[in-house]
Amino acid sequence: MSISDPIADLLTRVRNAIMVHRASVMAPYSKLKNNVLEVLKREGYIKNFEVVEEGNKKNIIVYLKYADNGSPVISELHRISKPGCRIYSNVDEIKPILNGIGVSIVTTPQGVLSDRECREKKVGGEVLCEVW
């Protein structure tokens, strides 16, 4: 079975795990997912993640982050660009999410970057998702 939208699958797994206050969640590995999780880690939305190999299959374990009062750091995850409708933005069109509280994850020629990193490097690309 192949998943038509692996990024949406990852976001849904994370969203569902947060709703039941899980410490971690596992998803099938891909380079793109690895890069998206790298951005989430840099921006402070997840604790960490690791790639584990089981036989010939690779999985990613995502360690979710919660505040001291137990509330999740991630309150919303939205897929923007979908396989049926790709959304691209120039660097001028990439605006801060919720006045900088949230983050857009953009795949660019320079790799997968946050909206802030896109503005710093002056590159645009496909807007994968928004997180806050």
Q: Indicate the CATH class.
A: Alpha Beta
Low-pLDDT residue spans: none
Q: State the major sheet.
A: 5 strands, antiparallel
- Looking at CATH, which topology would you report? Dna Ligase, domain 1
Let me know the number of strands. 8
Distance between the termini: 31 Å
Q: Assign the CATH architecture.
A: 2-Layer Sandwich
* H/E series: HEHEEEEEEHE
Label the structural class.
alpha+beta
**Overall pLDDT:** 96
How large, in whole angstroms, is the Cα Rg? 15 Å
State the helix count.
3
Number of domains: 1
The shape is: globular
What portion of residues is helical? 25-40%
Outline the structure in words.
The protein is of the alpha+beta class. The protein has a single domain, classed as Dna Ligase, domain 1 (2-Layer Sandwich), CATH 3.30.1490. 25% of the residues lie in helices and 33% in strands. The protein is built from three helices and eight strands. Strands 4, 5, 6, 7 and 8 form a five-stranded antiparallel β-sheet that branches. A three-stranded antiparallel β-sheet has the order 1-3-2, covered by helices on one side.
